[in-house]
Write a structure and sequence with these properties.
single chain; mainly alpha; 0% strand; rod-shaped
Length: 161
C-alpha cells in the first residue's frame, strides 16, 4: 500500500513538472524594450584624467591591494598544503596503531589539529584581505574625489576567495 502511495506521489510530481514546463514554453515572451539611446557625450577614455583624480595614484593603490591579496592567497595555500601533508602522515601513523582505543584517540587528535590549523589559515586570510581592502580604501581617498565613485567595488568582491 505504501509503495502505491509513494508511486502515485512521484507520478503526480512528474506530471506537475511536465505541465509547468509545457506552460512555460507556450506563454508568449514579454516584448523586448527598445535599445537605449546613445548618450550625447561619450564617457572619457581611461587615459584621460578625471577631475581631481590622480590616475597613477589609483594604479599604485590597485597594485598594492592586489599584491597583498595574492600574498594572502599564497600564505593560505602554503599553510593548508602543510596541514594536509601533516594530516596525511599522522593518519597513516594512527592507522598503524594496534590498540583500538589509542588509535581512536590519535585519529580524533589528528582531525582536531587539522581543523584548528585550517580554520586559523582561513581566518588569517580573511584578515589579510580585509587589511588590503581597508588600506586600498584609504589610498583611494587620497587619490582624488572620483576614485571612489568610479569603482564602487569593495571587499565583498573577494568573498569567493
Amino acid at each position: 500500500m505504501m509503495k502505491k502511495i509513494l508511486g502515485t506521489v512521484i507520478l503526480l510530481s512528474f506530471a506537475a513538472l511536465a505541465q509547468g514546463a509545457i506552460l512555460a514554453q507556450t506563454e508568449s515572451p514579454a516584448p523586448m524594450p527598445p535599445p537605449p539611446l546613445a548618450s550625447p557625450s561619450p564617457s572619457p577614455s581611461p587615459l584621460i584624467k578625471a577631475k581631481n583624480l590622480d590616475s597613477a595614484c589609483m594604479q599604485a593603490a590597485v597594485d598594492k591591494r592586489e599584491t597583498a591579496i595574492i600574498a594572502g592567497v599564497d600564505a593560505y595555500s602554503a599553510t593548508v598544503r602543510l596541514a594536509l601533508s601533516a594530516r596525511k602522515d599522522a593518519l597513516k601513523v594512527a592507522w598503524g596503531i594496534a590498540d583500538a582505543k589509542e588509535r581512536r584517540m590519535v585519529l580524533k587528535k589528528v582531525w582536531k589539529d587539522f581543523k584548528v590549523t585550517s580554520e586559523k589559515a582561513r581566518k588569517d586570510f580573511k584578515l589579510a584581505k580585509r587589511a588590503a581592502w581597508d588600506q586600498f580604501n584609504r589610498d583611494r581617498k587620497a587619490c582624488g574625489s572620483s576614485g571612489a565613485s568610479d569603482d564602487p567595488t569593495n571587499v565583498s568582491a573577494d568573498n569567493n576567495l
